[in-house]
Please model this.
Amino acid sequence: MSFEKFLFYVFAAILVFAAVMVITRKNPVHSALFLVLAFFNSAGLWMLAEAEFLAIALVLVYVGAVMVLFLFVVMMLDINIAELRAGFVRNAPVAILVAIAMVIELVIVVGPQRFGLDEVAAPAAKPAGYSNTEELGLALFTQHLYAFEIAAVILLVGIVAAIGLTMRRRPDTKSQDPSRQVTVKAKDRLRVIKMDAEEKA
Amino acid sequence: MEYNLASLQPALPEIFLLSAACLILVIDLFLTERTRLLTYGLSLAALAGAVALTLYAAGPEREILFHGSFVRDPMSDVLKIGLLLISLFAFVYAKDYLIELDILRGEYYVLGLFGVLGMLVMISANSFLTVYLGLELLALCLYALVAFHRDSGAGAEAAMKYFVLGALASGMLLYGISMVYGATGQLTFPEVAGVIAGGDADQTVLVFGLVFIVVGVSFKFGAVPFHMWVPDVYQGAPTSVTLFLGSAPKIAAFALTMRLLVDGMGSLVEQWQNMLIILAVLSMALGNVVAIAQSNVKRMLAYSTISHVGFIFLGLLAGTDKGYTAAMFYAITYALTAAGGFGVITMLCRKGFDAENLHDLKGLNDRSPWLAFMMLLIMFSMAGVPPTVGFFAKLFVLDAVISVDMVWLALVAVFFSIIGAFYYIRAVKMMYFDKPIDTAPLAASMDTQVMMSINGLAMLGFGLFPAALLGTCRAAFSG
Amino acid sequence: MDAVIALWTELPVVIQIVMKIVAIMLPLMLLVAYYTYAERKIIGYMQVRMGPNRVGFFGMRLWGLGQPIADAVKLMFKEIIIPTGASKTLFLIAPMLTIGPALAAWAVFPFDAGLVLADVNAGLLYILAMTSLGVYGVIIAGWASNSKYAFLGSIRSAAQIISYEIAMGFALVGVLVAAGSLNLGDIVNAQQGSVFHWFWLPLLPLFLVYFISGVAETNRAPFDVAEGESEIVAGFHVEYSGMTFAVFFLAEYANMILISALSALMFMGGWLSPLPQNWVDGVFLLDDGFQWLLLKTFAFMFLFLWFRATFPRYRYDQIMRLGWKVFIPITIVWIVVVSVMRVAEMPWWFN
Model:
């Protein structure tokens, strides 16, 4: 077994293990952390496939940003897991049966007899100076330009929708406006009242 | 390759609409509550401009752009114009409703425009990637619009259901697409069709992928048994959103099916024909029967949509140009009818009162004879009563089905249409023969009234002279 | 000499790599130790006091140079306390998760022309990915401690790091556009010339944003709300003691050194000499070389200390405002400017 093959099995094994842990852990924070582990290992798999840009982007975007936000929310939740899992044991047999059926079907359809190395040849290893990032950039900005632009619009809509649905003007907030703060003059805050001296009773 | 700006001409409507939407988004930020209607006007202008550019770019030939991801052909021209005009109706009807509910914010129209853009992208898609992205763009806008009334719990619930099921459907579709890509190694429809026709692709993988694609498409269409989201979303969403959601996307869904199944996998027609038969029969049966039991008019129309989707599938599954023409005719006229139907309901709403129930229609004739007459035409068209356009739409579809020797299917369709006619006629009866429960005067602004009149009379006009629209649809497929 | 090289090439690759790693790590750790000493001394002088000046070697005081060693020994022998109710595994993993990325980032860092552990094409991305991982240690530490102060600190830190990472990433995109490469060695080579050819001039706003975001990323003053002694005791590491605390400490300083070195590399010409090449060609110490990189890095490291001694702590919402409403727009605009300069082949830098 070559070293790369060995690495593949290591990554794949940890990936599957982490994925199972994600759905079986009682604590949502642990689940989220196992998901991070799963992302790491899929990044490793991509690295093996010489797609270093995708691998690093996965770590950068999903691990570095998305999962942090996810943890941010999950950590603050106080979910009663027992309640959520009440139906789990009762439904487990059916779920397991369905899952097994799905696995069998998938193996039949996308198994090695159709997508094995005999059917689809392995791509040739790339020369040393090959830059996956550069290739990806070229493909993205020429061949897939249209799709790239639509994806950009989708992201824009995501922003508009998120802001439109959540932002409200709240009159009771005490947030500061620095530009107004610095323009404050003494006479806005302080009123000097002239009055006669009081006489002692 | 020399970069030539003029070569982008076929994509002008999309480019224009995107620029306009972005511009309106920025302009809207500078508007106050009082000048907010400028956003509305600009959005209508953007749609009108897109119609003009579509006409300008139209032509009988087939043009492919952006390395094969974009196509402009006669079918896309017709569908785009239909879509843009129906969106125009949807935008006009929405205005008064939004003002009454006090949720007139610029994002509504911006999201609407982006949704229209997504539909245009779907209509002109020539590759799996584009069609999927267009679909997501539309879906994302619709999710946000459904939840647009932030103080409404039902709206949030509907949006959540729509989002979860929509994401599931997208996953299905994407999974199917990845299967087809795995089997053929191609993404653009002509190339995929070429590989399939060449017999080089693995049949099992293809059919497996096809099943997932059909499931994904039926989810988006809302065909039985993937219809669960339709009634809840139609009911929970603000009526103006239901109006938009229930009309224009049907045209886009038709385009989606045409592109995926006919352009991409036309040689697998035997496989998808059988799937569509099941979907069509179930949709017509369940939609029409369950609609009878509804007391909420939005829910009733939701089930009616399901049954109409069955009819559109009926045309598609014929697998002939005649069938596609009929389905296209059906999709466009149904979208127009649905826009009118929901439009009338939005006009019944006013501050603090959201017309939802069937008995809100009672005595509409006493309150506004003209509006009642429009609703009558729309209801007759949905039921398929001659001489409204709905009758001819059904007729063409049945004709197409019979001409491929599936007479039993036509009989089933006629049977369920007759059942369906009951609840449309019941609504008409309520309008004309029942006493009004609510006697508040109906006030609608001028633009809404004009649009509603055009919409209602179009039911009659296209019904009396179906040849014009039918000819256009036929031309789309003869080229 | 030849014999040594022959012996080196004879060694198994794994041993070679391990030795290279050690050759990077040992000086780095030493640097961290004396960085803490420098911090106390410099801030001391800025506040007109002496700083540590007692602990020396062999009975001599030596201006307190033995202080970091004494501190390290002390921390190593202290008890590691695990609070009741803490999530034990995560509590212990957290410090490692903090230090791991801080050290791993050095793998692609070029110290001189060709002197790099792993010369990868996507070096810049790798660095960005690694620096974005450091936040996990902080978040997990705060959550696993089962303490509300620690938790508040980690929540603050998570939000802050995410916000500044975007600005930092965009600043690096500007560098990437200017240099036309993701390889750190190529980025330095693209700045050939003299001090006026370095990227700090055409990318001045990005340079400032990058460095300030770097200060925020490392949770240093004036952005140290994650620790915020006066508000939430010591923030995310309030429950840590002994070696576990020392590891957090190490990671923070290693990260500061990393940010300084990266700023030197990407905006200040790395190991390039500030004088024009034809003046200094072959001149000892003035020619391009590691000494320049070291000097520049030290200058940035000094800035970190200077900030801490000078600026009061930012309030939390002001930090957020600065990140989202000031830095991100600046970087986006400047990326466009850089792209235009690049396409127009602006003379001096991009021709």
